Amino acid sequence: MRPPEPDFATRITAALAQLPGWEAGTAQIALAAAPVASPTHRAVASDCARVRRDGADPVFVKRRHADMAADLRPAMAEATRRAGALGLGPALLAGGGAEGDGVVVLADLPEPWRYARVGDLQDADTMAQVLGALRRLHGAEPLGQTFCPFERIAALAAEARACAAPVPDDIDALLADAALIRGAIAAAGFDRRFSRNDGTASNLMLRFEGSGLAPDGVRLVDFDLAGDFDPWFEVGALLNEATAFDPERRQAIEIYAGRCTEALLARCRLYSAVDDLMWGLWGITRAVTVRRPGIEFFKYGQWRLLHARTTLAARDFELWLRQL
User: What share of the chain is helix, strand, coil (3-state, %, to 5)?
Assistant: First the structure.
């Protein structure tokens, strides 16, 4: 039997001790985000703490869980640093290097900043600001480290089988459809851009003032999957999270790109299925590989796989492949 994991404050204190000059000492340590897999997929990969040390502003500390080490990509810290320098995310203050692998210290975003909900993104003005922030990120210099959702799907499928995760009966059909999408995307071509590759609402921070979102009221957080890839994957993942109908998708695509073509809409629809399949496999696999109780990885994975099937079974699926 494995020994019990140290308590939250002890884990954060030990994490900070890895970073020269950031020892917690007598700091006040508070939980900044409770882990919830379904439906918000928030704070499940890392401990998230707000730390206040004597005479210093509070900081936000992320400590990667050991059972999520396989999900930590090498570009995370550099992507976080660049986004902070661009004013698109909180500043990276420490961590991300070999001495603190899986530990980062970020500038805190205190109230009235809060994480976004799906309902926030269904407001046209808020969605426009979020898309504007993504457009700036995607227009920045590439990271030089790539990301591929199709390779991640293949790796997760192999891991699921190796750990005897409860893969669905139609897994081979789902993977075959993903291969068709990959081939069509490759044939159509794309430019690799600096991307978070994340569409989760809770990985956006918003600041409201008065009756609406403040100017410059969006910050991008969580660069765990950052890498150079087709920026339309991230746009498609965001629309997958926030929209249900094509008129909303068309409006968002036009805001991002200045126009909406059938090819761009088709690309977003196909990428939404890829995003669902990737996270669905992640959920059912982490339900087996993670021993922390009370986090509904399996429920989250099943929901995302159901969503993937719905898109892949749509009557326009083959048309979308041809329209790219």
Answer: 50, 15, 35
